[in-house]
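Reopening this one. Same input as before:
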Amino acid sequence: MQMMAFLTVKTLNDPNETPDRKLHVIIYRLLQKNDVAVKYPNEKVHLKISEVGSFLCLPALKMSMIMPEQNKTFLYKTFLYKTKLFYNFVSKFCKMEAPFIFGKLAEGQNFINRERDLENLKLNFKSGINTTLISPRRWGKSSLVNQAAEQLKAEVPELHFCFIDLFNIRSEEDFYENFATKLIRETSTKWEDWIKNGKKFISNLIPRFNVGLDPVHDFKITFDWKELKKSQDEILELPQSISFDKKIRIVVCIDEFQNIAQFGQSLAFQKKLRSIWQKHQKVTYCLYGSKRHMLSDIFENKSMPFYKFGETHFLNKIDEQYWIEYIGRQFSLTGKSISNNLSAQLSGLMENHPYFVQMFAKNIWQNTDKNCSKDIIAFTLQELLIQNSLLYHRELDNLTNKQINFLKALAEGVSKFSTKETLSTYDLGTQGNISRIKSSLENSEIIDLWGDKIEFIDPLFKLWFIQIYLGKRYSV
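Same output, byte for byte:
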C-alpha cells in the first residue's frame, strides 16, 4: 500500500541561534550525505514510500504518516536518535544540497565579498553611468551584476533590468531579434502585453511574434532582414522609447558583449550602437563578457567606437581571507568542520579562482564525513585530476609542440620568455615567435595576459599539467 510521509521540522529552543541556521544544522547533521534538500521552519519534506516501519527520530522532529485511502493520520511518537534506521530511510528518498555552488549565479549566502564592487555598481546604475566589467571567465561578473540588480529592484522600484546574453549570437540579425525580444519581455508582465507593446514600439517594421505552447518561456520576436536593414535604429532606440512611454528607467545588461567583434562589418555595427546608445537619457548600459583581451580592445583602444563609453571596472579575484571565512561557515552549517589553514590551502591550490574554489570545496566537502584533513584535500585533488585527464589531454592535442613548450616554461616559473637561454632550453624558436604563441594560447583561453603577467586561466589544468603531464611532484 502506497503511503505519503510528511517530515515536519520544529526548530530547537536556543535563543542564540536563528531559525534558518538551526534548521540547516538539524537537517544536515541528520543526513550526513551529499545533496540533502534544506527546508525552512514549518515547511514539510514530502516522501513517497511503499512500506512503513518504525522510525527513530531526533527530538526536534516529528513524523506523521498519512494514508490517503483511509483518510486517517497517525502521529508517531518521537524517539531519541540512537540508530541509523531513520537516517537510512530519509537519505534514500531525500537529496542533500551541497553548500557550495558553481557553474551558475551565486546568490544569497553564496555571494562572497565584493562589497566595494557591488556598491560601486549599484551607484552607477542609480546614477545612470554606463559600466563595463572586465575579467577572465568564471570570476563572478554575472553574479555581481545579478546581485546589484536584485538589491536595486527593492531599493529603486522605477529601475527595471533587462538581461541579454550574446553567447549564441553570431550576427547583427540575431542581435536585433534578441535585443527586441528581451526588452519587450522584461518591461511587460504578460505575454499578451508583449505582443501589444511589440506592435506599439516597433511601428516602422512588421515584427513576427513566435509564441509556443508555453508563452512565458517560448516567445520570440523576429523580423524580415531586408526590412530590418531599413529601420535598425528603431530597434536600438527601443530602451529609450519604452522608458519614456512607461516613465521608468532601464538598465540593459549585456553579457558576452565581446561577441559583437565577430559580426560581419563589426566596426560599423559598433559605431552605430555607440552613436545611438550614448544619447539615451533614461537608459543605462552594463556591458561585460568572459574574454578579457577582446573586451579590453573594444573599450580601452582609443581607435575603437566604444572607447570610454562609460566607467571600466577590472574585476579582481576574491581575497583569501573571505574564502577562509566562507568555506569554514559552509562546512559548519552542514555539521562538518575544516580549519582555517586547510581552507586557505584549498583556496590557494585553486589560486582563489571563484569557480574552481567552489568546485574544489564541494568535492572536498563531499569526501568529508565530519572533520576535513590534509589527506582528504590531497585525495580529492588527485580524484579531480584523474577525472579531468581526458579533457585536458584533448586540450593539449590541439596545441603545437612549441605552444606546449611555452606552457612548460610557464609552469616552471619562467617569466622572461625571450631570452636566449629560455628560447634554447624550451625550444621556443625565435623571439618573434613568442608573441604569436602568447596570442594563440590567449585566444584558446588557456592563458591570461595582463600587462607583464601571464597565468593559466584554469588552475586545475595547471596542476594536472605539472603533476600528470610533466610528471613532477606537487606537494599539497
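So the earlier flakiness isn't reproducible anymore. For the record, The radius of gyration is 27 Å.
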